[in-house]
């Protein structure tokens, strides 16, 4: 067993950092990357600027390998784009003499198991793992002593349904739906300029798309931007603004708030999508807002509803998952988005990431399951701790070597804004009429007016 490598699945920033830490501990990694190059998923959002600066994006062990190869670090205080993260960090790291010969590209892992036991067998679970992957049209198998799954979640986006399932007609209009963060000002501009786009979701991916569409609208006024959110109020998405410890993250919320105030974005609150249907070149959206039916037509839909882990390849491994988040049960209370909407997530390592299957770990974005609160620096801390534990340095594995930026103001900001909004609506009423019985009633009247092509009342 000690002569076998540690198999790292994924050559993104966290997978490469894992390999760097393993080497620093005298352990042998082999990295299997499904894409044609390191950080392949990042290339699909290369146009997006990260909200964490370089100082939070460079792993310590990776830095050692890079500097040994003559690398010049970027300015620590600057937040890179995805393209810059690739060009200035991920690609050079994968090309270092230590890592390059240990990475296999176009190697998509399809299954992980013990060598001769399925997950039902209790005995013999100390035997090696086998990792089966597809490369060059053929299946290959390698043996490993440990598995670190850092394959991410980019390839498994959530469907549009509020219940976690695809809505009726979603597959039929799939060509009109983009996931993640399409480049609406670049390669995808022809699909959105002068057309109506509905963005569904309220995370940072959705905000990036919305702001890009607003920029496109300024050069092409025929561009219409609609935003469907499941909450009645967008304040949680707006976040901490200037008080955010990550300036780029705060700036996103500030710009979003300004775009909403200027009427550049048509907000559809309390949005629950029910069905999609093709009508010529248009997609007819049937939904509910605050429980009332609404229908409108769009040209494109951007599904920014988050991601979920692909656990199909782990079917023969004893994986312990929280029933809601699909991360380890020990990690769930630390990252639950119902509790951690804007504050910090406490650093964690091997102890919280351990599964019932000995020597099996999930790290990086995939370790968070369905939670969207992941920061790259957290992934670096995870694999540092895992490598220390595998080397027998349990004191280092338990030690916290990361200080995350704190925000902690979002919940206060939400409460203040909601109270002020409710008070104003109670005093002024909605659309010039009497005060609504509820905030949702006001939102419905506003949305219905906008969808009908009339000026909204501004209630939402």
Work out the number of β strands. 16
User: Counting H and I runs of at least 4 residues, what is the number of helices?
Assistant: 13
Roughly what percent helix? 25-40%
Q: What is the structural class?
A: alpha/beta
CATH architecture tag of the largest domain: 3-Layer(bba) Sandwich
Report the top-level CATH class of the largest domain.
Alpha Beta
Strand content: 15-25%
Order of helices and strands: EHEHHEEEEEEHEHEHHEEEEEHHEHHHH
Structural shape: globular
Cross-sheet strand order for the largest sheet: 3-2-1-7-16
Overview of this protein structure:
With 460 residues, the protein is α/β, with parallel strands linked by helices. It contains 13 helices and 16 strands. Strand 1, helix 1 and strand 2 form a beta-alpha-beta unit. Helix 5 (204-219) crosses helix 7. It is globular. Residues 407-448 and 454-460 have low confidence and may be disordered.
């Amino acid at each position: 067993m000690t002569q076998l490598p540690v198999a790292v699945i994924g050559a993104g920033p966290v997978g490469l950092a894992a390999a760097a830490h393993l080497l620093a501990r005298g352990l042998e990694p082999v990295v299997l990357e499904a894409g044609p190059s390191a950080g392949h998923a990042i290339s699909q959002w290369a146009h997006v600027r990260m909200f964490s600066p370089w100082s939070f994006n460079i792993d310590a062990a990776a830095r050692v390998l890079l500097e040994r190869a003559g690398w010049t670090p970027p300015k620590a205080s600057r937040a890179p784009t995805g393209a810059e993260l690739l060009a200035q960090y991920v690609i050079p790291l994968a090309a270092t003499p230590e890592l390059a010969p240990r990475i296999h590209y176009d190697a998509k892992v399809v299954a992980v198991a013990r060598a001769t036991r399925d997950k039902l067998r209790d005995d013999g679970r100390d035997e090696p793992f086998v990792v089966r992957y597809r490369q060059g049209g053929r299946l290959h198998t390698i043996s490993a002593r440990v598995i670190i799954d850092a394959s991410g979640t980019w390839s498994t986006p959530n469907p549009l349904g509020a219940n976690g399932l695809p809505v009726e007609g979603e597959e039929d209009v799939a060509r009109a739906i983009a996931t993640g963060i399409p480049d609406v000002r670049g390669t995808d501009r022809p699909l959105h300029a002068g057309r109506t786009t509905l963005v569904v979701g309220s995370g940072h991916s959705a905000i990036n798309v919305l702001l890009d569409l607003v920029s496109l609208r300024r050069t092409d006024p025929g561009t219409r931007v609609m935003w469907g959110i499941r909450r009645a109020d967008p304040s949680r998405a707006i976040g901490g603004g200037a008080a955010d410890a990550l300036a780029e993250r705060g700036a996103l919320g500030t710009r979003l708030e300004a775009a909403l105030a200027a009427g550049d974005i048509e907000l559809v609150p309390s949005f629950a999508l029910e069905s999609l249907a093709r009508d010529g070149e248009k997609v007819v959206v049937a939904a509910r807002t605050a429980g009332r039916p609404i229908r409108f037509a769009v040209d494109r839909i951007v599904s920014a509803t988050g991601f979920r882990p692909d656990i199909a390849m782990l079917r023969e491994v004893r994986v312990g998952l929280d029933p809601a988040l699909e991360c380890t049960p020990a990690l769930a209370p630390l990252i639950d988005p119902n509790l951690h909407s804007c504050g910090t997530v406490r650093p964690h390592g091997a102890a919280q990431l351990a599964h019932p299957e000995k020597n099996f770990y999930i790290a990086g974005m995939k370790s968070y399951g369905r939670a969207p609160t992941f920061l790259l620096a957290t992934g670096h801390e995870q694999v540092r701790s895992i490598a220390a534990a595998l080397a027998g340095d349990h004191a280092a594995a338990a030690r916290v070597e990361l200080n995350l930026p704190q925000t902690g103001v979002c919940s206060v900001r939400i409460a203040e804004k909601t109270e002020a909004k409710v008070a104003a609506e109670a005093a002024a009423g909605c659309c010039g009429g009497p005060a609504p019985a509820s905030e949702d009633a006001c939102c419905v009247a506003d949305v219905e007016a906008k969808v009908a092509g009339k000026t909204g009342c501004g209630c939402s």
